[in-house]
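# nightly structure sweep
# worker-07 picked up a monomer target from the shared queue
# config: single-sequence mode, recycle default, output format = structure tokens
# input follows
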Amino acid sequence: MEDTGIRAVRKTDLGAVQVLNQGAVPNVNSVSVETLKNFIQQAAYFRVVVSGGVVVGFLVGFTPGADYGSENYAWFCRHYPEFMYIDRVAVAPEHRGKKYALGLYRDVERLAFAPLLACEVNLDPPNLRSLEFHRRFGFRQVGTQKTEGGAKTVGLMIKSLAPLTV
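# output follows
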């Protein structure tokens, strides 16, 4: 068993993943273990960070064609033919600042599922930490959208992974 590193999620990890997810609400939406089980089938990327044998972070991403009802994922499906939508990422509070989220993002890039990374960041209520992280990582805002019946406003962001041609 891996003691430390990034690896594919296992069904036995889902309880820990759900606890991490629920601890990150409202920056991510609440999910059940059943929904996480469905993510294993639908997500193109569902990996965890393990430290000392314990799951301390995770990232879930979808490509077009997944059976996933997110309003934000649907927005990207309408606007871009190919992308990796980063649906949610969370790291245990006591492990923040150790660059685990950055490691997950670099892992998504390394696997190069699509020429574009896509995500949303809460603007209202604001998630300033996430907004700054995504800007530093090279994302730019391409739209906004009200979600949850107007209770939230999100910034829709992309990062191109395609090499520049001159």
